[in-house]
Amino acid sequence: MNKIFKMAIRNLMRYKRRTLLTSLLITVGILTVILFSGLAGSFKEMMIGQITDSNLAQMQIHKKGYVSSIDSMPLNLNLSPKEYKTIEKILQNHPDVEAYAPRIKLSTMLSNYAETTNIRLNAVDPEKETMVCPDVTNRMVFKDNVREKIFVKPGEIIIPKNLATGMKLKAGSPVVIVAQNKDGSINGLNFTVAAIIESVLGPQGKEGYIHIKDARTLLRMEKPEVTEIAIRIKNFNQLSAVYTDLKSSLLKFKNKKGGSIFEIHTWEKLSPFINIANMIDLMTISMKLIMIAIVLISILNVMIMSVYERIREIGTMIAIGTSPGKIMGLFLSEGFFLGLISGLAGNIIGIAGIYLLNIFKIRFSFGRMDNLLLSPAININELFWLTAIVLLVSVFATLQPAYKASKMEPVDALRHV
Amino acid sequence: MALVQIENVSKTYQMGEVEVKALQDVSLSIEEASFVSFVGPSGSGKTTILNMIGCLDKPTVGDVFVAGEHINLLNRKQSAVFRGSALGFIFQSFNLLPVLTTYENIEYPLVMIKNISQSMRSEAVHKVLKSVGMLEQKDKFPDQLSGGQKQRVAVARALVTQPKLVLADEPTANLDKKSAVNVIQLMRSMRDEFGTTFIFSTHDPKIMKEAEVIFTLEDGMLLPGEENK
Prior knowledge:
Chain A has helices spanning 2-14, 16-56, 81-93, 126-132, 161-166, 212-218, 239-251, 267-270, 273-309, 311-319, 324-359, 380-406, 410-415; strands spanning 59-63, 97-111, 116-124, 140-142, 156-160, 174-180, 186-197, 208-211, 228-233, 262-266, 362-366, 369-374. Chain A is an alpha+beta fold.
């Protein structure tokens, strides 16, 4: 086997220019995939981080049916104190849950005493909310630019920038919030604008914040109900596993009709960014397919040429007794090594490229978010799979020429000029 | 039984719509350790008959026996095994593998075909390298050798597996006269040293004189009167 490998490598070196050009082509293909994956992956991760760490959280638990009617923010689908306690117990006992925060979501009217408009509010416990969404205050502009640890206190409201601009409100402005509770009675409370929040992707980005106690007063709740429980887990990569685990725990609780009482969703179900994320994944797959095509065509081409140029040589090897399997092995080895050399070169240059991109920091704007910094990265598994695909495709591309070589009739091959 | 036994062999090729009779009813036998030449003009059937004996081609009609093996009955794989174990080949254009050194070219049949140890391989290769006078050139690649030297390497490669029979198709055609005579004399001395049967084809009168048995072919037919010297 060593002799076959040795011959294969020497045969590649025999046609240096051709090997170099083919290898270069494959290397550029791999480099492109690595850089694209690194950049696109970094963009995706950063945006997911922005969304989950700013306002959405990684997972949310609701009363069954809430998410499908989320646009109307129904208050009759709130979790009762008993239900909240039940869920809280599950979350507290789960080793992978880092933090959770109760929220009340309500649709209200906002008045600056001159104009009135509607506003969707997130009523939160600021301390717990900060644990679940650590970047929640990043997009908030407080009075005198002083960021408070408790970002919203009772009596304060944080309103979206577009509303603040439209209604000429700024931090410190007094406003009135009017809301209708689930029984139909209407109530109003005075608030002071504590901060203006810049928009992020999705409808959540147009929501304001008040303290959860104010929401209960405004809605005249007799018991401390909550609309949703936002969850943060210790390792985001375990999201799917933790979700499945929590889902199965929650499914045990049934109503009288035997249906589930609770529902749990990951950010993917709750944010429209998942469509962009899916698009990024699709584009990454497309890049990989293009790379596969480059490897396939270039190696197939070079190996077909190699077989045609070496017909007499193949005839000689067959004539002196080399078995068809060994002839095939020789050509497959050549394709394999060509893929291996190119794959390694592509990986090394790709890693260097990622390193350079990190040195020359790339900043960009997305929607209303400016100065976002990309930190391209590629993990070792991705490189491993990329190399494995290149090797597999290289060997696959060599199969036909190698088979053809192994099946040559020595008489015809030796006669070939 | 003779080492090579050819019985009423005919070979017909289809060249487009034309049928070419390369061999017509040829019968002959060749004894072990003989030094045999097939002579005749181009297209007389020399290469075809060597291909039959070399298990590279099969007759359209007739039977070929080499070293007791009925060549007609061997499949592709069996033919390869038989060639590797019992036959050696020397080609007109030397056909050395360009990516292998002299040593590696000679070692090739032992590595690829015969599964023997490194030390035995080394011993066998050095022995034939010494016999053909190419020991000092063992690390050179074919493109660093002269035509005569290449053919010496080819002779060594054919002999290294200690075959019963070596077939050489116009082994001197690409050599100058001096080198051609040297190669034929080398083959003859190898026959004397190893007892290997050599069968070669040529149309060079000076070379054919070196053979002990000459078969003359013309238009695919063996001319009567095997010439024994």
